[in-house]
Every structure is written in structure tokens, then in C-alpha cells.
Amino acid sequence: MNTSDFYYDLPECLIAQTPLEKRDSSRLMVVEKDTGKFIDDHFFNLVKYLKKGDILVVNRTKVLPARLIGSKKSGGKIEILLLKRIDLKHWRVLVKPGKKAKIGTEIVFSDTLSCIVQEHTDDGGRIVEFNYQGVFEDILNKLGTMP
């Protein structure tokens, strides 16, 4: 099995931007193994498709609110998109506008969160060091937005 087996065309207009109020009303696509037939249903009907001995894998991952809007000391606005955590304080990020994020630039998001650009990456991104007071994930949940 290859990951490419799971590629399919999904128009962006069909991707939910916010969760449904009744979460179990989410759409469910069922593929019958024997016939390959596709069935369009709802998640609250999931149990009718499970048989004894089936394994149900639950994904409990969450999307980080990884987009931060800050400003330089000069007042210019800068957007940061978190890509990969390197260690406790360092992240690989994308910066917009990138030309304004030279090495040594400090970006302030709030009185509890700021970062300093440490280096440029080969792909045009940046490595930043965050300075914060408290738990980074809690601060991110308050200040960040979904990309």
C-alpha cells in the first residue's frame, strides 16, 4: 500500500472551515470493500458499518492555531506561520512579508509572546526563537489563528 492510494480530488469548497454544532452530523464516506461502492452517510451511523472483529482507529490530533500576526518595533505588521518545532523555543516558520524579517528582527505578538529571527532557511523560511511567559501552547491557543 502506498500513500498515493489515498490521494483524491477534494474541491476546497467541500472542506469544512468550522465544525458542525452537532459533531456526529459530520459526513461519512463509506467504501464497501467487496464491491468498491461509495456510500454517502453521516458519522452517527458509523456503528451500522462496523462488524465484529473490526478495528476502529481514532485520530485525536488537533490542528494548531499556527498563524500569528505581530509587528516589528518600527510598527510594520508581520505574519508568522509555524511549520515545525525544533526545540522548546525554536521553530521553523514562514514569514510574510519575508523581506522584512532579517536576522535579528524582533516580532512582538503580545506582552507575553515575541520572537527573534535567528536564521534564514534554504527554502525562504526562517528559524525563530520565541520568548514567552507561561505555557507556549496556551498562549498559541489565545493568540494564534488557523492557517
List the helices and strands and how they pair.
Layout (H helix, E strand, L loop, with lengths): L26 E5 L6 E5 L24 E6 L4 E9 L4 E7 L9 E5 L2 E8 L5 E7 L3 H8 L4
Antiparallel strand pairs: 1-2, 3-4, 3-6, 4-5, 5-8, 6-7, 7-8
Describe this structure in words.
It is a single chain. With 147 residues, the chain is mainly beta. It is 5% helix and 35% strand. The strands form 2 sheets. The protein has a 6-stranded antiparallel barrel with strand order 3-4-5-8-7-6. A hairpin with a 2-residue loop joins strand 6 (106-110) and strand 7. The protein is elongated, with a radius of gyration of 21 Å. The two termini are 30 Å apart.
Can you summarize this structure?
The protein has one helix at 136-143, and strands at 27-31, 38-42, 67-72, 77-85, 90-96, 106-110, 113-120, 126-132. It is mainly beta.
